[in-house]
Amino acid sequence: MSRKNKFAFFIMLILSMGILVFELRSVNMVHFWHDLLQMNWWWLLFAVFIMIFQLCIEGVIMQVLTNDGHTHLSYHNAVRIPFIEQLFNSITPFSSGGQPAELIAMMQSGVEAGKASSLLLMKFVIYQMAVLVNFVLTMFVGFSYVAERFSGIAWLILLGFVTHLVTIATLLMIMFWYRFTKRLLQIVMKPVSWFVSAERYQSIMKNLDRKIDTFYEEGQQLKKEKTRMIKAVILTLIQLLFYYSIPYFILLALGQFHANLFNVMSMHVMIVMITSIFPIPGGTGGAEYSFRTLFSTFLPNASQLVLGMLLWRFITYYVGMFSGVVMLAVPAHKEKQLDNKD
């Protein structure tokens, strides 16, 4: 990691420690330690395993999207990518550092930069669509309950939903309405020319045009290979199902066996929607608030609620972050690629 990334890493650790102290300020520490010592550690370890396992599934997704007969990505190199992404998503605002880190990891494996960039955009589209599908399904189950009891949270959830919808719509427009998107880009970006030099504006537009072109070309290729797309979509849905189930096993670790798996997963889907709109790395602050609010129905005890939140945050955030540091230290195997020309 660069010095800047190391600094961000330690800042996030300090910020998290501050949130920990803040959350514990009104908790009876005798009850808190009792709940911690009485916890079923096997269920907790299983939750950690699920977190790591779903990232390993993402490694398979990377292979499915990349290995097309011209480009080859081994599982050793593919599995590094989601862990490294997790690390840089965790230390950058709006998770903006994840994709550039993935791109570097793929290039280290020998995948050409333009192709790697397009594949990562395609993976992003598939992932966002899978998140959206899961959210729409949970809307019919848990959203009315949340809206009735937590109106403030409901508005945050809807804002997250709109953000995801706009992102997906933009990328799908590139795939299916290429010329229209190019014209729309010229209109949308016109105000930028009022604030930057003509040279800088042309540079920005050329860069955006190039990204749209490469994404469109890769999208057209993948649309022809429906088997690969279907495999990637199915694997992404499976990956998300595992990820969304993590709070359920935390509840089991805390002895809350009355919790319904589907209801817990629905609540976690909504938390992911809320977290995505917070600019602070990892959605820090918003993630904790939304978990405490939504999971208060499963953990009415104040000390258990805070403990559950801390365990959830540790598993879904810090396990990925620290495992990403480990994977960053594992060198990629430089692979010889086949000729990309037909």
From TrEMBL:
Function: Catalyzes the transfer of a lysyl group from L-lysyl-tRNA(Lys) to membrane-bound phosphatidylglycerol (PG), which produces lysylphosphatidylglycerol (LPG), a major component of the bacterial membrane with a positive net charge. LPG synthesis contributes to bacterial virulence as it is involved in the resistance mechanism against cationic antimicrobial peptides (CAMP) produces by the host's immune system (defensins, cathelicidins) and by the competing microorganisms.
Keywords (A to Z) from UniProt: Antibiotic resistance, Cell membrane, Coiled coil, Lipid metabolism, Membrane, Transferase, Transmembrane, Transmembrane helix
Catalytic activity, reaction form: L-lysyl-tRNA(Lys) + a 1,2-diacyl-sn-glycero-3-phospho-(1'-sn-glycerol) = a 1,2-diacyl-sn-glycero-3-phospho-1'-(3'-O-L-lysyl)-sn-glycerol + tRNA(Lys)
GO biological process entries: lipid metabolic process; response to antibiotic
Residue ranges the record marks as coiled coil: 198-225
The keyword NAD belongs to this UniProt entry's keyword annotation: no
PANTHER family assigned: INTEGRAL MEMBRANE PROTEIN, PHOSPHATIDYLGLYCEROL LYSYLTRANSFERASE
Chain segments annotated as transmembrane: 7-27, 39-57, 124-147, 153-180, 232-255, 267-289, 310-332
Organism whose genome encodes this protein: Schleiferilactobacillus perolens DSM 12744
Lipid bilayer topology: Multi-pass membrane protein
InterPro entries listed in its UniProt record: L-PG_synthase/AglD
Molecular function in Gene Ontology: phosphatidylglycerol lysyltransferase activity
Record's GO cellular component terms: plasma membrane
Location in or out of the cell: Cell membrane
First-tier enzyme category under EC: transferase
Main localization category: membrane
Family, as annotated: Belongs to the LPG synthase family.
Pfam families: LPG_synthase_TM
Name the UniProt record assigns to this protein: Phosphatidylglycerol lysyltransferase
Lineage of the organism: Bacteria, Bacillati, Bacillota, Bacilli, Lactobacillales
Entry's EC annotation: 2.3.2.3
NCBIfam families membership: flippase-like domain
